[in-house]
Amino acid sequence: MDQNPHYPNLLKPLDLGFTQLKNRVLMGSMHTGLEEEKGGYDKMAAYFAERAKGGVALMVTGGISPNFRGRLAPNSSQLSNRWQVKKHQIITDAVHKEGGKIALQILHGGRYSYHPLNCGPSAVKAPITPFTPKALSKRGIKTTIKHYIRCAKLAQKANYDGVEVMGSEGYLINQFICARTNHRTDEWGGEYENRIRFPIEIVKQMREAVGENFIIIYRLSMLDLVENGSTWEEVVQLAKSIEQAGATIINTGIGWHEARIPTITTSVPRAAYTWVTQKLKEHVSVPLITTNRINVPEVAEDILSRGDADMVSMARPFLADPHFVAKAAEGRSKDINICIGCNQACLDHVFKQQRATCLVNPRACYETELVASPATEVKNLAVVGAGPAGMAFALEASQRGHKVTLFEQSQELGGQFNIAKQIPGKEEFEGMLQYYIHQLEQSSVDIKLNTKADIESLSNGFDEVILASGVTPRIPKIDGIDHEKVLTYIDVIKHHKPVGKKVAVIGAGGIGFDVCEYLTHEGESNTLHRDNWLKEWGVDKEYKHRGGLLLKTEVDPSPRNVTMYQRKETKMGKGLGKTTGWIHRATLKHKKVKMVTGAQYERIDDFGLHVTVDGETQVKDYDNIILCTGQLSLRELQSDLEQKNIKVHLIGGADVAAELDAKRAIRQGTELALAI
């Protein structure tokens, strides 16, 4: 077979002996919440089929428990009975119809399970759940192994092409492996050989039960990133044992869920952890998959061409764009909708028991609901504002056949994206912006930059007007707010006004945290320099210490002394993302940002900021005071248009100006465009 001229290594088939994968791309496991929804299996069938159609070689489902006690939550999915097979066949039939392959992930939560019936090797409570697990008896361990095997056989009966045994991220198998959670003194604990008996028995007995012609992926924790985690020598020993037990492929797992080191969020450098997979390659002969923060085909191709791995796993990039592989094969990487690693609509949703989707692609997991169809009545539409909401609407509406004119008063597309992309650790927003710009340039949308829409231009032949005009900073009523020391976040990030060495930031929402990030970094952020980033977060690339942790971190000092204030007495950053808020707080802690809650702002004058905290009024002499105190919607055209009986729609910041919310903006724009 001829090599693909665009990405020859990425798109090269992988021969597994009894079957062949058509390229080197695995769609990694993601729980979507559809697993528990009524009618969810039909929706999952559409979701996976779309990605099979998009060219991915092999997909892995979200985690499915082998028994009740292993469920992550009381209502989570399990596969343990023959009657459940039929539901899963809906998925496998749909995937195979599109020429794809799919494996079921078997995941037992162990002490991470969020219910009182959870269990583990020992009664050691996890810091992320309120329930202390019951230590499994010897009989309970053997029964649990049987349940893994039963689950694999049922998956085979449901026509899955294989299973992935989840042995990493701190779930049950990982809990057996590590002494931090395995305090047993019997044959399932103590010495390392005893602690790894559990995963080895699972894979060995599973291979005997399913035969040779069935894919068994073992997800191996190659880097625990927790204290008293595995050593490198132990990781190698387990990998060799798992290969010998019968695994077809070994996948890379990075970090336990309780680890205090980021592994998949936006600020993690691309391909930050592929070095650990490469380190294992010389020790095993089965194919190795590498993972984490691989989101463009160029990075994936580079990983494979260097020989760091035999396959790459990308999970959330397939939420962002189900046709990632097909577009790469056609040399259309600019047309790939890029995953920015934000977690806002995927992981944050799942942890709040909501259905997962994607900030940049609201259709993800809504394939049967957000369906585009040609417009029955072609309309002439004006869109005011080319931020996230305006661009999303303009693209979707034009693709349906509407005539769309996009007005933007500045000289560039993107709106708030142009601010976000400048924040250290949010460089991925540039890629998302470039995707939108490229799509709009290829579209039929009439783009008018440097053009302020007015009532006259909008009254000229447009059937409906979409106001996506965004927001303006909210200025609080503080005596002296117009002092020359006072700047808004727009002044600082967009207009690059000079900022002194001693700074107060008023407001501790997402924008306040972003501004603090901006002010405490100098030059390129470590997100663009992997080895520096690993040192900053304490990751031991030499792997000399347990869990892959350095004994001390190396943090670049902040060029400024920054204090962040908020009126509320609640924890700073309470409104930040559920799975990423701790990262933002930790980053600012690294930079020694002082955080003050319960602040009452009295006035600002030549002496500085007069602020009352805990009943005591203080005068703080700051070079600058930066306002991050919320936003107001820009709707100045709405009433004039309505008086002329022109139908007006509000989307994005023009509709709700709470925090800057690209997820809501893009979804609103998409939904309106599909309905109009």
Automatic annotation (TrEMBL):
<dbReference type="Pfam" id="PF00724">
    <property type="entry name" value="Oxidored_FMN"/>
</dbReference>
<dbReference type="GO" id="GO:0051536">
    <property type="term" value="F:iron-sulfur cluster binding"/>
</dbReference>
<dbReference type="InterPro" id="IPR036188">
    <property type="entry name" value="FAD/NAD-bd_sf"/>
</dbReference>
<dbReference type="GO" id="GO:0046872">
    <property type="term" value="F:metal ion binding"/>
</dbReference>
<dbReference type="InterPro" id="IPR051793">
    <property type="entry name" value="NADH:flavin_oxidoreductase"/>
</dbReference>
<feature type="domain" description="NADH:flavin oxidoreductase/NADH oxidase N-terminal">
    <location>
        <begin position="10"/>
        <end position="334"/>
    </location>
</feature>
<keyword id="KW-0411">Iron-sulfur</keyword>
<dbReference type="InterPro" id="IPR001155">
    <property type="entry name" value="OxRdtase_FMN_N"/>
</dbReference>
<dbReference type="GO" id="GO:0010181">
    <property type="term" value="F:FMN binding"/>
</dbReference>
<protein>
    <submittedName>
        <fullName>2,4-dienoyl-CoA reductase</fullName>
    </submittedName>
</protein>
<dbReference type="Pfam" id="PF07992">
    <property type="entry name" value="Pyr_redox_2"/>
</dbReference>
<feature type="domain" description="FAD/NAD(P)-binding">
    <location>
        <begin position="380"/>
        <end position="648"/>
    </location>
</feature>
<keyword id="KW-0288">FMN</keyword>
<keyword id="KW-0560">Oxidoreductase</keyword>
<keyword id="KW-0285">Flavoprotein</keyword>
<keyword id="KW-0408">Iron</keyword>
<comment type="similarity">
    <text>In the N-terminal section; belongs to the NADH:flavin oxidoreductase/NADH oxidase family.</text>
</comment>
<dbReference type="GO" id="GO:0008670">
    <property type="term" value="F:2,4-dienoyl-CoA reductase (NADPH) activity"/>
</dbReference>
<keyword id="KW-0479">Metal-binding</keyword>
<dbReference type="InterPro" id="IPR013785">
    <property type="entry name" value="Aldolase_TIM"/>
</dbReference>
<dbReference type="GO" id="GO:0033543">
    <property type="term" value="P:fatty acid beta-oxidation, unsaturated, even number, reductase/isomerase pathway"/>
</dbReference>
<dbReference type="InterPro" id="IPR023753">
    <property type="entry name" value="FAD/NAD-binding_dom"/>
</dbReference>
